Every structure is written in structure tokens, then in C-alpha cells.
Amino acid sequence: QELIRQGEALKRSEQMVDKMDQDLKTSQRHINSIKSVWGGLVNYFKAKPPESKPEQNGSPEYYANSRLKEAMVSSKEQESKYQESHPNLRKLDNSDNDFSKADLVSSVERDSYPKNQQLRAYHQKIDTNLDEMSSGLSRLKSLALGLQTEIEEQDDMLDRLTRKVETLDINIKNTDKRVRQL
Asked: Where is the composition biased (Basic and acidic residues) (predicted)?
């Protein structure tokens, strides 16, 4: 969730830099008008730039990548299952569930376990624990892949934002020189 919040902040920053660039272009037009009569005439006959929104580079709102959203949703779904099955988080009245699970074991599975009841119970418990570990690892893998994709997208956004800021900085310095020359 923090990564998504940071992505939203990056998107807002990029939009602000785009607006600053648009404002700088408007100030360049005003400087040309002030600097000389010829600049004023050129600006008068030149088509006025449309008062449109600056380039958005996509949609105005930030959306996290779908892989991360899917991983977060499935993780939240599995969280409740995990809390029900975790020994320290499990409710005390879940003791009947162990019997119902044992009753549902098919005859094929019973044949694969040893004949000794205690050994069979341990094997079943180990299998259950391994299944829980497998689902937990699967959840972690999908979260990690989602995070990787989101980080790569935000890295691209940072590169784009850095280029825009560098260009804007150069343009601001040039505009400042022109204003000082007036």
C-alpha cells in the first residue's frame, strides 16, 4: 500500500512539473512581448497556445499495476484462512474441525498413510502444514512479483520525471537570464 501511495505522489509530481512547463512557456511569450515591439507583434499574430492541460502521460489518476492489485486481493483473502489455521491464532472451539477433516479423507489417501493411527495422524498433520506453507509461499511469490512490476513502473516514472525536471531547470535559467537582460 505504501508503494501505491508513493506512485500516486510521483504522478502528482509529474503533473505539477508539466504545469510548471506550461506556465514557463506562457511567461516566455510575455517576455517576448515586453522585450520588443517586434516580439509583441509576433505574439499578437501568432496563434495563442490553447489553454489545455499539460501532457498527462497516461490517465490523470494513478493506478497501481494489475499484478500487484491481484496479489494484494488474493493475499487478503488468504489472510483469513491463515488466521483460522494458525495454531496461535486459531479459535479454541475448532477442535471438531479436526475430526471432520479426518472423516473426509478418502480411502485412497488412507491407504497411502501408515497403518499406525498415531503415525497416520502425524503424517496428515505434516501434509496439512506443508499445504499451508505452500499456499503461504505462493502468496509471497505473487506479492513479490507484483511489487517488482510496480517498482519497475515507478522507476520508469522517476526517469521520465528526472528528464522533465532537468529540462525545466535549463528553461528556467534561460528565462531568468532573459528577464535580467530586460
From this structure: 90-101
**DSSP output for 145-178:** HHHHHHHHHHHHHHHHHHHHHHHHHHHHHHHHHH
pLDDT tens-digit map of 30-60: 887 777 666 666 666 665 655 555 444 444 5
- Give the lowest-confidence range in 24-28, 99-103, 160-164: 99-103
**Which residue carries 496428515 as its cell?**
124
Is this prediction's pTM over 0.85?
no
Contact 164, 21 (CB under 8 A): yes
CB-based contact 154:6 (threshold 8 Å): yes
Distance CA 171, CA 163 (A): 12
Residue 59 is predicted with a pLDDT of 47
